[in-house]
Amino acid sequence: MFETVLVANRGEIARRVIRTVQRMGLRAVAVHSEVDAGLPYVREADEAVAIGPAAPAESYRNAAAVLEAARQTGAEAIHPGYGFLAEDHRFAMQVKDAGLVWVGPSSAAIEAMGDKIRARNLVAAAGVPVSRGTAAPVVDLDAAVAAARGIGYPLMVKASAGGGGMGMAVAGDEAELRAQFERVQGFAGRMFGDPAVLLEQYFPRVRHVEVQVLGLADGRVVALGERDCSVQRRNQKLVEETPSPAVGPALRGEMVAAAVRAAESVGYRGAGTVECLLDVETGDFVFLEMNTRLQVEHPVTELVHGIDLVQQQLLVAAGRPPSFDPATLRPSGHAIELRVNAEDPVRFLPGPGTITEWREPSGEGVRVDAGYAVGTTVTPHYDSLMAKVVVHGTDRAEALDRARAAVADFRLAGPKSNLAFHAELLEDPRFVSGDYDTGLVAAMRA
Question: Is the entire prediction scored with pTM above 0.70?
Answer without folding.
Answer: yes
